[in-house]
Amino acid sequence: MGARKLIDPTFAEHFAEEWIAGWNEHDIEKILSHYTEDFSVDTPLAIKRLPETKGLIQGKDNIRAYWGKALENNPSLQFRLIDICCGINCLAIYYESLSIQKQVVENLFFNDEMKVEKAIMMYSK
Fold first, then answer.
1. For the domain bounded by 9-123, which CATH number is listed?
2. Which residue among 27, 30, 89, 125 is buried most deeply as judged by most CB within 10 Å?
């Protein structure tokens, strides 16, 4: 485990704006530029779409394929930023997924280089 560091609110705001823009532009490489090569995503949507994963997808190549297919299958996908919350080595992005009309909290855990090494998503009912 690296150094424990409180996420700076200015960094968090810039990160969230870039992250949302990447998704809204459907630019998979822009999105993935924020992540480590071996990051993991823990998401209830993966249980529905790929039950064999049990909701956990690991590695940039696997996640590129998963997210790429999601973008391809949902050309109207758009996010609206609601808020951000800063923690120690983590950031929560609270947003609305306009295409599925759900609110989402995405918890992003950073390494010492400020790249995301783990993401955990939670969706409204």
1. 3.10.450.50
2. 89
